Here is the input.
Amino acid sequence: MRKNISKRFSVNRGAVAKVLLFIYDAFVINFSYILALWLRFDCEINTLLNSAEEYVQAWLKFAPINTILGLMIFSGFKLYRSVWTFASYREFFNVLYATICSFVVHTIGITVLINALNLNGINRMPYTYYIFGTILQFMFVLFIRFSYRFILLERSRRKVANSKKSSRVMLVGAGAAGRMVLHDMNLATDSKDKVVCLVDDNPHKIGRYIDGLCIAGDRHDIPKLVEKHNIDKIYITIPTIKPIDKREILEICKETECELKILPDIFELRDEQIGRNTLVNVDIEDLLGRDPIVVDMSEIFAFLRDKTILVTGGGGSIGSELCRQIAGHNPKRLIIFDIYENNAYDIQQELREEYPELDLVVLIGSVRDSRKIFDVFSKYKPDVVYHAAAHKHVPLMEDSPCEAIKNNVLGTYKTAFAATLNGCERFVLISTDKAVNPTNIMGASKRLCEMVIQSFDKLIKEGEFDKLHPLYEHDDSEVEDRFVAGNTKIRTEFVAVRFGNVLGSNGSVVPVFKKQIAKGGPVRVTHPDIIRYFMTIPEAVSLVLQAGTYAAGGEIFVLDMGAPVKIDTLARNLIRLSGYKPDVDIKIEYSGLRPGEKLYEERLMETEGLRTTPNKLISICNPTDFDADKLFINIERLMHLCYEEPSSVKNFVESIVPTYHPAGEHGTEEKPAAYQEQIKAMATK
Here is the structure.
């Protein structure tokens, strides 16, 4: 009932406002011109009524016609349908165009009327009558429509100025985008942000003003200006900023402990979108200590075009990004294979909406299922496989080592075997730097995966593929018969891609830290000295795709990820980027290394070396020699141990992977030479 009354009141209020505007305009349309006539005759009423009586008569006789024509013109330019609470340039020009049209009609109409009436020989009104009348009409019409907008704006400004909760904002960047953000914030009636200072690196702008605000300095003056103006927030409004400049500005800004926001890159924006709502939170990847990885994607997608591509684990963070990039470059067919139906469904709906012409197949199943994975290969015959399906969570796998072996090692073996027997051209394994000198079962399982695909590649090149046979946990002659029947042309090339932690991926530390900050802390870091390599999801995917084109078989591709990052520093930067002070507003707690975790990660084992590729940031590590025949025998024994003697799995993996040295219950805090060198590199950086 109350809602209905409120709705009727709102409608009636709008109707009343429209009627009042009609009445006001009818008055202004005529009053403007008689006022212009009064100004023409020196603002003397007597002179106007005596010496200019003919002009007054002409004005009076034309007034009814002028009122009707003027209101019709105003209605045609939607001056009675605009929401003047949000009046802007569009409404300004509508009033201007309506006034010009009204001027033309008025001039012609009153001149024709004067000649028809033949008033004492006059044939037109004075020139100043037309000019001043038009100007006055425009001013009066514009004033009434924008006055309410200005009143609301002034109220908002005073409210922000007087509010104790208002935030004082600095804009970094006084270019076109910065001016648009400033204008939008000045006009906003619901904003509690008050821009008090601007910064720009252009020396010709420093000391000049925009909307009454001084451009007070360049990026190096930010800390001083923050203190001087009591700044709470810093908004970086340079969508064309270079990555190196962005990092430098962010490094300066984060030391001020102000909340930071930034405009996205220019390719993500259109001019009409730029405003205060376009600003986004600063991502931690903006602070990575290296330039972004640049990959020649045209070469990659020329390789993928018109091929059937299978992505296992296609619903995960890496797998789904692979699917997105592949889908946009004309594959013959894209097959997404994942055991988790929710993730698979999400990427399916996204790709169907974005690429309606894409031949997309989404299948639910496990790479551990010999029958299922072979059915997929025998039915769809994929040309290229990106094997992203894996268990990756270190502490969970320490508690469930058999699952790490079943999913990672056996799943990789079965997928690689099915790919080989069904004519697949390339098989790309997604590995991790945790496979280097692993101290946990997850890293050891991924090292075994690398050894598996290198052994597959070696036996194929040596023509000894008959030494391999299918793995299945239960007696089933049908499975073996089907595998043997599928043995046609063997041509698959196997490669692996090894990289570090992926920012924003499932299980990444950054989303965990952000949630802890949002709750007010504490932020839990395992150890004050722990370091990790980091890369972004698009970079990881670019490297994976690049590996598919560089592959000759048997390689392990490694990314130059720059200097490692201290997790403690990462957490503190995230807190600062959120506008808080570490250990003051948000506490940091050290929980100790988790099971299987170590202080540092490595890119290479001591026995591995590096070879270059056309991309200087992508290298190939030289393979480590091992007995492939013995490896496959041990993997089969390992498979049975997972079901028969699960408690002995870790010990057996240690005997297979010479570089695997299990950490204690609380991880390892050893600091070998490699760790010391990484710390020294960080300090130099």
Q: What stands out?
A: The first helix runs from residue 2 to 40. The radius of gyration is 36 Å.
